[in-house]
Amino acid sequence: MKDKDKKLIDKDIARRVHKENEEITKPSKDHPKVSTITQIIVYLLLAIMVLFSIIYSFIQIF
Length: 62
Fold this sequence. Notes:
- By secondary structure, the protein is mainly α.
- It has one domain (about 1-60).
- It contains 2 helices and no strands.
- The protein is rod-shaped, with a radius of gyration of 28 Å.
- Keywords: Membrane, Transmembrane, Transmembrane helix.
């Protein structure tokens, strides 16, 4: 009887751990929004850097 109870407890613990691991590794729904916002910010920063480098090179030429 104790063996059976122990197996049930072990199964329950294994099921709970598996469920928690799935919840932890499941990607959040906000992730695509955050990644697109990050991409937009990076593109804007790169564009600003390019513009400043072009302006700086024109200043050096003239």
